[in-house]
Write a structure and sequence with these properties.
globular; alpha+beta; 6 helices; 2 domains
Length: about 210
Amino acid sequence: MKITEYTHFIPWVLIGSLIGSCFIVPMMPKIVDVLYYKNKYNNEAVIFYKQYMDKCYTIKVIMPPEESQLYLNNIDDEKYPLSEVFDTTYDSRDFFNNPSADYTSFYCKEYKKFMNIIAFKDVNGSYVEKELYLTVNRDDMNNPVYGTKDNPVPVLKAVGVSEPIWFSGKDSDSVFIEKFYRNNVINYLKYKMPKEEFERRFMSKK
């Protein structure tokens, strides 16, 4: 009797389901990560962060009152959210490990530009009505593309002039704040700066 006569006894659907559930489904997150997430962000940011920081300088501003319309979130909280999560994997189990950033977008009267204080670590403090030293990048400040509502100048370090911003007072610790600033710059370049801009500003000069 030929082997083919027995093939109709083989539970092909069951075997296909077992293969799918045991091999293909568990591998899906890894496959999607390799095909989509691996190169989604600027993975070379750690190489170029110092180049970005070398072009930064400090300005002094006075922040608006809490309810001021100078804060973009007070104008439209959907268009100008206070935070953003950057997806780095297809695996839903790692959702809470995704990096996130808090935003304080506002119109700066002193420099007549919109700016966005970005923090990739919870500051747990307040900028409201405080006099601040803001660290900005010279190329960003000189570029007319930056400073608009939809593309504010990124601010990656903010410290109080005469009083701490952080409720814990951590920002008065120069060692801590410099480490925070360094990590902030790396994360901004990696996750927030558009890929085409990152490649134009850094990769083309390698």
